[in-house]
Design goal:
The chain is an alpha/beta fold. The protein folds into two domains: 84 residues, Leucine Dehydrogenase, chain A, domain 1 (Rossmann fold, 3-Layer(aba) Sandwich), CATH 3.40.50; 132 residues, Rossmann fold. It contains ten helices and eleven strands. It binds guanine. Guanine (GUN) binds next to β4.
Amino acid sequence: MAAKIISGNEVSQQMKDEMKLEVAELKAKGLQPCLAVILVGEDPASKVYVSNKKKACEYIGIRSLETRLPAETTTEELLKVVNGYNNDPSVHGILCQLPLPKHIPETKILRAIVPEKDVDCFHPFNVGLISIGEVRFLPCTPAGCLELIKRGGFETSGKDVAILGRSNIVGRPLSNMLDQRTMNATVFMCHTKTKNLKEKCAGADIVIAAMGQPEFVKADMVKEGAVVIDVGINRVDAPGTEKGWKLVGDVAFDEVKEKAAAITPVPGGVGPMTIAMLMKNTLTAAREAAGLK
Ligand code: GUN
């Protein structure tokens, strides 16, 4: 039987509608949530991401501030902007869009954002909180994956999960979240040196592919009835099409969907969830700053 397609477009829209109501309630209590976004340089993809984040803020009713800086900006100049937002009590979340120009050390900037406003959940303090099960913010892409599983109608408790890819942004935090007592999954963290990766993957109830290899996960690597979450976004040649390229995930969608119980598409799967989770973290930051539950 063909898999259920879990649509990130639909789930994220549902979440944004829920958050719109939540913001209306917060505003009635005199609280206006606010997200500040910093964009350095002219990276076209980053401009699109930032504009999408701004649109989501507008839709939900979150106030959004934006600082655009030229590619030649120095680390000190950028730190000054970050500190300005750190010290502004009307700002609840700060996001510095990555990648930064090569001369600016990313870790230095990301660690300069105060943990209370770190809505990306990249600061080591917030990463550490997750690993001890004291969650304030959830990293946006991993949280988006878990929300798709949950709202898709699937459980993680007692399940074996194979995570492919150990990045700090996706694989590692996912592993940290899934084996907490709230999620109760058993995690197989797979990477380039993993022995018998195919078998490990094929034994899992849930497969989360996040290693950036176009269509790496084939049908013979997936158990009948598994739930498959595809985090990959890869541009591959598509001769004969108008653009000459297309986007594919890390999963061979057409063949895996014939075997899985559920699968997320690319595009329109995990991608739109990342922004919804960023909005959610911004509301969490605003509530915490105001001392609201
Ligand atoms: N660039 C691509 N994805 C992200 C993200 O989730 N957060 C930030 N800050 N930059 C990004």
